[in-house]
């Protein structure tokens, strides 16, 4: 249970076997491919033996595959948006091997199917575009429907016909001026709240004067683009719209008939995404005339599965495989971090990832953090009913469908946390905010073990004790890590001495306040004093400047105030546990005060909604505050992080889970 030991794997193969090897590696999901085109100390052998390997641009189908992917996504989205059953017939997530995924896909049969859907899409879009244009035309003609003639058919050598729009506020003055100064006939054709559509008929000899008036009132001229009068043109539009509606129904039927093809499109999309991932890394490989070299990082536990599956898929003589330990430079600059924990601990890795992965040679904090988070989370939610809802909900999620791997880990995380939630619910005697019975069939039950109303001080002390234990563990890990690096004085000053101070102060408090024992008090004082002295002295020994070392030691010792603040932070375990239970009890009381009729009708719905809200807030609070205690009060004692995540060659897993070929017994849980 730690950071996986990584090794550098080199695979030499014939160029003709490249696709098969990459498919096998992608299905195994255990190798992060190194970029051999990059200049680094680890790649100097390439310049020596294959100096021309990366001079020529390698052939790649990545661009072609991206274009195909876009077409598949377009086709799939088109059918889903425009069919009646938008979710029906979509691909159901399942677990399948990469080889089975790609063997099931037949590109020869799929290409005509894709082109058929894209042709249907073009027809549909063209129809919609034409329909939209006709509707705009119809709306425009509606404003001129009282115009009895087409201006394009107006043929007169003496008169001028003008169409346009005037603002409603200027309409009366505009018409009055036209009639006063010219012999213009004005026809008000259509009124809007802010503007009026007008037709003007005037003598051509008066056109200059009319134009002057039009300009003065900001009259906006309109060109009538059609050959027929508006009413006749509208009739033609309606006929064409009726034809398009019939065509639209026909196309809509075809779209719905092809809705079942969504599964094939999504299947093809998953295959294409897998191919794209393989194409992306081809430029990182060393490709000579007849041979290809693949190099990457692999966890030691995956070496045997890799060798077995390559032999199984390609034959023992098809490839040459070698493994070597990473160099110090590679550990410092390049090597990724892969966590390897027991299935019970593995879901808690996401908390470590949210903070920062450990560096390759750093300790994995996950197994040291998981038990504390387990206890703290349960203490903050602390309700048997809420724990049962979490357990049953997560079990149903996992039973009813195959979840994406990230979601599955998140669900497993809360499934595990349902156990401490129920256990602490027993301690606090809380079932959906209701107290457990103290007697059943004449048998006395020990509930509550701790009362959230009468034992608040005890719960507060217990919260601080849990925090005290976690801080001591963090300091122990800090000392242990320094010893591993052979930094023995730092192990004392940064770890064990602080343990001594905290334990000593605890003994002083116990001896002086609880046991009234001078022996315990004196023992605690001696331990704390010697520990404090070591914190002051060790920096003096380590520093070339004794004065600076003394100042550093004094500053370090002042850090004891920070530990007091850390211990106070753990009181949130009590606060959140009590608040969640109190809110649940208040909800129950609220419904209990309702009249019987309301209580058993709307009251049932109300109590479900209120408890669902309280459960959500309790889980959110416990999740966030539990993580904060780990990140701030715990990790800060021994952990820095900064590792680079392990990114194996794998698939996108957009619609299905690609099951790894490695037979890892740790997966069973």
Automatic annotation (TrEMBL):
The record's subcellular locations are: Membrane
Q: Does the keyword Coiled coil apply?
A: yes
**Residue ranges that the Swiss-Prot or TrEMBL entry lists as coiled coil:** 84-137
Q: Does the keyword Ribosomal protein apply?
A: no
Where are the bilayer-spanning segments?
Answer: 372-397, 417-438, 458-479, 491-514, 520-541, 573-594, 600-624
Any single Gene Ontology cellular-component annotation: vacuolar proton-transporting V-type ATPase complex
Q: Residue span of the signal peptide, if any?
A: none
GO terms in the biological process aspect are: vacuolar acidification
Highest taxon in the source lineage: Bacteria
InterPro entries named in the record? V-ATPase_116kDa_su (IPR002490)
Q: Give a GO molecular function annotation for the protein.
A: proton-transporting ATPase activity, rotational mechanism
Membrane topology label? Multi-pass membrane protein
Task: Give the family per the record.
Answer: Belongs to the V-ATPase 116 kDa subunit family.
By what name is this protein known?
Uncharacterized protein
In which organism is this protein found? Enterococcus phoeniculicola ATCC BAA-412
Q: What is the lineage of its organism?
A: Bacteria, Bacillati, Bacillota, Bacilli, Lactobacillales
């Amino acid at each position: 249970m730690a950071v996986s030991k990584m090794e550098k794997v080199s695979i030499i193969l014939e160029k003709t076997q490249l696709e098969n090897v990459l498919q096998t590696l992608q299905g195994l999901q255990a190798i992060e491919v190194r970029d051999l085109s990059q200049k680094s100390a680890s790649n100097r052998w390439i310049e020596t033996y294959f100096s021309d390997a990366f001079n020529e641009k390698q052939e790649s189908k990545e661009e072609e595959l991206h274009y195909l992917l876009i077409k598949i996504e377009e086709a799939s989205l088109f059918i889903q948006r425009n069919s009646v059953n938008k979710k029906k017939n979509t691909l159901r997530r399942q677990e399948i091997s990469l080889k089975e995924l790609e063997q099931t896909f037949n590109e020869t049969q799929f290409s005509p199917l894709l082109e058929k859907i894209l042709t249907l899409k073009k027809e549909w879009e063209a129809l919609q575009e034409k329909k939209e244009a006709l509707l705009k035309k119809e709306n425009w003609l509606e404003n001129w429907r009282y115009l009895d003639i087409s201006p394009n058919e107006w043929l007169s050598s003496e008169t001028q016909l003008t169409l346009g729009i005037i603002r409603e506020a200027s309409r009366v003055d505009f018409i009055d001026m036209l009639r006063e100064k010219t012999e213009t006939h004005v026809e008000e054709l259509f009124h809007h709240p802010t503007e009026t559509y007008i037709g003007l008929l005037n003598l051509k000899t008066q056109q200059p004067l009319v134009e002057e008036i039009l300009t003065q009132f900001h009259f906006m001229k309109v060109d009538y683009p059609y050959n027929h009068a508006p009413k006749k043109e509208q009739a033609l539009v309606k006929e064409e719209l009726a034809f398009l509606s019939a065509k639209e129904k026909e196309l809509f039927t075809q779209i719905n008939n092809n809705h079942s093809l969504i599964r094939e499109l999504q299947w093809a999309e998953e295959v294409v995404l897998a191919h794209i991932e393989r194409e992306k890394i081809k430029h990182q490989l060393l490709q000579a005339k007849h041979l290809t070299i693949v190099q990457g990082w692999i966890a030691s536990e995956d070496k045997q599965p890799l060798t077995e599956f390559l032999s199984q898929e390609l034959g023992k003589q098809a490839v040459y495989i070698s493994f070597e330990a990473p160099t110090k430079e590679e550990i410092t600059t390049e090597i990724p971090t892969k966590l390897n924990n027991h299935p019970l601990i593995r879901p808690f890795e996401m908390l470590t990832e949210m903070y920062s992965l450990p560096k390759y040679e750093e300790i994995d904090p996950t197994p040291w953090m998981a038990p504390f988070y387990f206890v703290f989370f349960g203490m903050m939610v602390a309700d048997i009913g809420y724990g049962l809802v979490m357990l049953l909900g997560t079990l149903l999620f996992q039973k009813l469908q195959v979840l994406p791997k990230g979601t599955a880990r998140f669900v497993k995380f809360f499934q595990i946390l349902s156990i401490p939630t129920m256990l602490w619910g027993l301690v606090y005697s809380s079932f959906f905010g209701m107290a457990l019975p103290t007697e059943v069939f004449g048998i006395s039950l020990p509930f509550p073990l701790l009362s959230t109303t009468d034992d608040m001080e005890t719960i507060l002390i217990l919260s601080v004790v849990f925090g005290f234990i976690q801080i001591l563990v963090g300091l122990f890990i800090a000392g242990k890590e320094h010893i591993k690096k052979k930094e023995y004085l730092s192990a004392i000053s940064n770890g064990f001495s602080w343990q001594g101070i905290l334990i000593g102060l605890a003994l002083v408090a116990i001896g002086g306040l609880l046991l009234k024992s001078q022996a315990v008090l004196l023992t605690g004082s001696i331990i704390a004093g010697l520990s404090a002295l070591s914190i002051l002295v060790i920096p003096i020994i380590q520093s070339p400047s004794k004065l600076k070392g003394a100042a550093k030691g004094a500053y370090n010792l002042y850090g004891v105030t920070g530990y007091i603040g850390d211990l106070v932070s753990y009181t949130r375990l009590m606060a959140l546990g009590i608040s969640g239970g109190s809110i649940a009890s208040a909800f129950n009381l609220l419904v209990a005060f309702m009249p019987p009729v309301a209580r058993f009708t709307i009251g049932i719905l109300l109590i479900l909604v209120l408890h669902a809200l309280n459960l959500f807030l309790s889980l959110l609070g416990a999740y966030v505050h539990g993580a904060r205690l780990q990140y701030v009060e715990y990790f800060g004692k021994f952990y820095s992080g900064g590792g680079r995540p392990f990114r194996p060659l794998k698939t996108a897993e957009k619609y299905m889970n690609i099951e790894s070929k490695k037979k890892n017994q740790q997966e069973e849980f």
